[in-house]
Amino acid sequence: MAKQPMLKFVQIDRDMPAKRDATVRREDFDEIYAEYAAAKAEEQASRCSQCGVPYCQSHCPLHNNIPDWLHLTATGRLEEAYATSQATNTFPEICGRICPQDRLCEGNCVIEQSGHGTVTIGSVEKYITDTAWDKGWVLPNAPARERGESVGIIGAGPGGLAAADMLRKAGVQVTVYDRYDRAGGLLMYGIPGFKLEKDVVQRRNDLLADGGVTFELNCDVDAAKFAEIREKHDAVIIATGVYKSRDLAMPGSGLAGIEKAIDFLTASNRKSFGDAVEDFDNGRLNAEGKKVVVIGGGDTAMDCVRTSIRQGATSVKCLYRRDRANMPGSQRETQNAEEEGVIFEWLSAPKGFTGDDSVNGVMVQKMRLGQPDASGRQAPEVIEGADYVEEADLVIKALGFEPEDLPTLFGQPDLPVTRWGTVKAAFQSGETEMEGVYAVGDIVRGASLVVWAIKDGRDCAEAILKKLDAASAIAAE
């Protein structure tokens, strides 16, 4: 009788890849987790229970075939595991690194619910694709036939690049337009290297270019450029993301030393490329030797506190108005930050800033959790008389992002937007009310996860291909 390769969660405990010691990893921007060895990856994959209703798969936005590629990994069929993973996910090695698995696939693992510890899905996913790159299994797109239609994509983030990949596979001519000098969007400039090393992103960019995707970088799309793009292509996808930072309107908010998270993170990532960054070199966006206070409790805030530690801040504190259980960011990232020396001030909210020309402190009001608000979470309430001042030389606002005013920026007053400024687009297809114009990712959803942007890009590409095929069939009659 053949040996059972799966359902070993009773005999084998959950085991994540080794994590570098916090005192070592806080000195650089390298990724903090080691790679699985082949035997360890097979062992951990074999813990999967292969359940009849895989909640891990249903709670993945891409509905990745997780049980299938875990089984293939456990039985040593890695090339097939990679093919299965790649079939539903354009960037599995990126999702394996930065997806909040604790809130998605791993958080809904059946054996986790039974007390045995979840399968390490993200780490195995990362291992599969990194191995595929090492073995030369990852190849540029080679369409069976080239098509004459073309699609222009505005924005080289994960949503735009996922759409570009799917369209090129079908032979469509694709041009991606982006305002930055490197493709990748927040994957390149927003997420720090200790979570996602930049060569991982760049090799995907290179693969897309090798497969025939054209990139127009350093390209600011204004009214004239948008009209040109629309005229040139059969369809246009808006995948700009949301980059406008939410602000704080309170006493002292205009003081020097109070910075936006996106500016801080972009400067740090640019320095890692060896770019000249004036506002980093002059100290403005450099945490070295400073008392840093980060305001916010999401993943961007976690990126900021951990970056500050690596830049040599003398202290790093994070203010969040709710408690740990109610924070929106990853619990795993919070733990990593605490290990590296970040102090979290829970139930704490800013009410203003002190200082003459430059900030020297944050006025903090202590909070307690009251009745649930409209979102169902307990609303924070001020505790009267519990205010204090937190010393700070650098304050970083990580309060989330909002969309830019695209109808004005693109000179398209008819571009339909919601009251939040996001583009109105049809569910799944991404089609807007403007003929031939689609939208995907955060510019439709608001600030969200990379994995959702990938899903939107893939779904939109599929919808465009159906339209192009239908138009071709009519023209052939």
Automatic annotation (TrEMBL):
Its EC number is 1.4.1.13. Residues 25-136 form the Dihydroprymidine dehydrogenase domain. It comes from the Bacteria. InterPro entries: DPD_II, FAD/NAD-bd_sf, FAD/NAD-binding_dom, GltD-like, Helical_ferredxn. GO terms for molecular function: 4 iron, 4 sulfur cluster binding; glutamate synthase (NADPH) activity; metal ion binding. Keywords: 4Fe-4S, Iron, Iron-sulfur, Metal-binding, NADP, Oxidoreductase. Residues 151-457 form the FAD/NAD(P)-binding domain. Signal peptide: none annotated. Its cofactor is [4Fe-4S] cluster. SUPFAM superfamilies: alpha-helical ferredoxin, Nucleotide-binding domain. The keyword Glycoprotein does not apply. PANTHER family: GLUTAMATE SYNTHASE [NADPH] SMALL CHAIN, GLUTAMATE SYNTHASE [NADPH] SMALL CHAIN-RELATED. This is Glutamate synthase [NADPH] small chain.
